[in-house]
DNA sequence: CAGGTAACTCACTAGTACGTACATTAGAGG
DNA sequence: CCTCTAATGTACGTACTAGTGAGTTACCTG
């Protein structure tokens, strides 16, 4: 028993400390951007001190890259669990679009990190070997759906998987990422429940209509 | 003659100085974000000194807001020059989508500023009275096209103007705003000429297919 | 050309933010 | 129970960064 202390009893736990740093850092970076994020502020929101951030991550930039790696890894892992291949092509691509919509809706911090990383021209992503080798499981799913749809004649438009992914993502990403300026300028909160449901249907109909092509 | 010196001869010119500050500031903010932008760096890229930035704009934040106001004002002015109403509904909406595509392609700094402003939850836009009263001319254009298309029976889908604008914008915005992470992760530069042309066609076909609805 | 003011320059400060040197201790292994 | 090391806390240094006080000069007006 003495050699099996409960996790919460331990005062020192490298894994727990690292995980807490990453979680708090993700919020801070997502809220304020890379330059706007404050290492001291991250430290203030943890049980531990700023010293530990540097002990484990070395620098603000490497911490930021670690946050990106964790976020992207989780997203890709979730993508691998998507199962729409038992559905007919039209329903499969519609469902994939709606799941993408749900996913963006549920991971707003991740969306913000992506937007922030683009402001910096993806310079941090390019420094990460982890991210360079993550792969893109969703593209395989889309490819198979497109092949099946074209074989059955339901899809007329000749589109490739990356383009289709881009079309779906752009809609889902924009709704979350640009909600604030859009809300301020057009007076509509795209994330409000009533709009959310309609826009979710829209993205599915959009991609299906595009792939079916002119009647 | 003595009272009409050529602009370039004048050593002191408030308008020219203000304009130069705004131009350089726009680049700096677009490149590095709000927090990452450096007032000293803006000053270093101008003929004049940092002191003038504070003389004319008062603070980094007010300078940033002035940059946003200028950028948005120019965009809205350009939107007002769009003339697609002599076209039939299908061609009108397709052309509008392609013009939006071209516009985003040509104003990348503006796109970045919008992305940055969303990271900050549009807090600066909300502080600007100029931006609150800019209006959204493009929505009227879309409304009229949708009405005409529904009247003629060419458009079956019941969509409203804001949704249609959002669908078009999301595609055009994403291609430019997310080009770096997308390029790094999917190995495709969406802004390269060969992709540019195809994606331009795609956005038009997408919106037309969506509005025409199921066959 | 005289005088006043808007436009401008220079040198400086206060505060902040990343990062670190050094001291300390929990806890695993023998 | 002792020892060694990974983990942690404290306090501080250095460099940067937004913002300013005070003086100077170009240019307009009469």
Written overview of the protein:
Two copies of one chain form a homodimer. The N and C termini of chain A lie far apart (72 Å). Chain A has 215 residues and is mainly α. Chain A is built from twelve helices and no strands. In chain A, 73% of the residues lie in helices and 0% in strands. Chain A binds a DNA duplex (30 and 30 nucleotides) through residues 3, 5, 10-14, 17, 38-40, 48-52, 54-55, 59-60.
Strand content of chain A: under 5%
Mean pLDDT of chain A: 93
Most extensive interface: A-B, 58 and 58 residues
Biggest sheet architecture of chain A: none
Helix content of chain A: over 70%
Number of strands of chain A: 0
Shape of chain A: elongated
What gyration radius of chain A follows from the Cα positions, in whole Å? 21 Å
Point out poorly predicted stretches of chain A.
1-8
The class by helix and strand makeup of chain A works out as mainly alpha
The oligomeric state is: homodimer
Give the end-to-end Cα distance of chain A, rounded to a whole number of Å: 72 Å
Please trace the helix and strand order of chain A, writing H or E for each element.
HHHHHHHHHHHH
Tally of DSSP helical segments of chain A: 12
